[in-house]
Amino acid sequence: MLFRDKKVDGRFLPKGKKGDNRWLTPWMFLNWAFIGVAIAVGVLLFYGLFIDVREPESDILTLKVIDCFSDAQYFNEEVLMPDFDFYKECGLSKLVLDESESYYLKISVEGDNQKKEFEIGKKDLELQCKLGKTVSKDPEKYPQCDERIFKTTNQNGDLFTINIFTASDQEGGRV
Amino acid sequence: MKRRGLIIRNRKGESRFLPKSKKGMDILHGAVIFIVLNLIFFSVMFFFIARAGSQATIVEQKYAKRIALIIDQAKPGTNISLDLQEVYFLADKNNINRLDTIKIDNEKKEILVRVDVGPGYSYRFFSDDVILWGLKRKAMKLEMEVKKNVV
Q1: B16: Cβ–Cβ under 8 A, 6 or more apart, which residues?
Q2: Predicted-complex ipTM score
Q3: Under an 8 A CB cutoff, do A103 and B126 touch?
Q4: CA A139 from chain center: how many Å?
Q5: CA-to-CA distance for B45 and B18, rounded, in angstroms?
């Protein structure tokens, strides 16, 4: 590929053409590194799509709580009992919600002169999600959350207000 | 006798197995190493691009998350049948046994999807229900039954 004159010297190489003999140089490895990184970045950008399901996940979590705190169309008053087992009654895994540090739930129930609160998971996710929604231009980089106020009555007609905040930051990954 | 790299040399610095004017052989050694390194480098790049280009990573991620969301949303007593044509197509292409493509771990609450050589993609579900599941190889479906955890 080199243009050569009659004296067989490379036109773009020094006359001594010692460069011809250098097969393994640091520059060659540097070149490979550049090529490798460029290809990897290009491919990852094109195919390395992250499917974000954190928002629907926090929605489902909220719906699960609403479903568990309702008994038919009325408020499930067992929730206010001191021995109410949140995980068992709501069919949620303690291992995942409490110990994985990828979720946060904050639920407060108020009504009929009674109040009860539940707080599960990593508390930091609430602040991060709110920061992402209010301050950041790129909220997808922050945990996703769902906040709802749910009003219901018991069989006597007493009103109960349930504030539910759920957040998810599970990204999954290769094993 | 000195040892330098892989070539055994005598006091005059001449290789025992090479002729006295060894310039040509040095160039040959450099060229061979250069070609071998090139082959290694481009094989690695080819493997990486082929794997990324097969969309295996996306399909693994998509199905792991889809199954997790379905389980999370399901109520006890629900029967679910999920089409796995896309998963089996890639698994067959990459010589992965169809029965090894999806695993649901009720202990760890984890779903593992694998359609290519590699560890696969895992995602956790938060439902405490017990998932009875099975893969239908010919019908290309994942059958699941959600049961309430009584423990």
Answers
A1: B8, B9, B10
A2: 0.75
A3: yes
A4: 11
A5: 36
How far is CA B96 from each of CA B27, B43, B67, B113, B117, rounded to the nearest angstrom?
44, 21, 20, 11, 7
- Of the candidates A44, A49, A92, the beta carbon closest to that of B126 is on A92
Which residue has 């999600």 as its token pair? A129
Report which residue type is found at A94: K
| Greatest C-alpha distance within chain A | 107
Residues 13-32 of B with CB under 8 A from A: 26-27, 30-31
Predicted TM-score (pTM) of this structure: 0.73
Distance in Å, alpha carbon of A113 to nearest chain B alpha carbon: 32
Inspect the interface and report whether the beta carbons of A24 and B127 lie closer than 8 Å: no
- Contacts within 8 Å (CB) and 24+ apart, B43-48: B44/A36, B45/A35, B45/A36, B45/A39, B48/A39, B48/A40, B48/A43
Q: Which of B41, B123, B127 sits opposite A32 (nearest CB)?
A: B41
Lowest mean pLDDT among A37-51, A52-66, B31-45, B62-76: A37-51
- Among A165, A161, A159, which residue's Cα sits nearest to residue A147? A165
Q: How many residues can be counted in chain B?
A: 151
pLDDT tens digits in sequence order for chain A, 175 residues long: 444 444 544 455 555 555 556 667 788 888 888 888 888 888 777 766 788 999 999 999 999 999 999 988 899 999 999 999 999 999 999 999 988 899 999 999 999 889 999 999 999 999 999 999 898 888 888 999 999 999 999 988 999 999 999 999 998 887 6
> What residues in B contact A48, CB-CB < 8 Å?
52, 57
Contact yes or no for B132/B126 (Cβ under 8 A): no
Of A39, A56, A87, the CB nearest to B49: A39
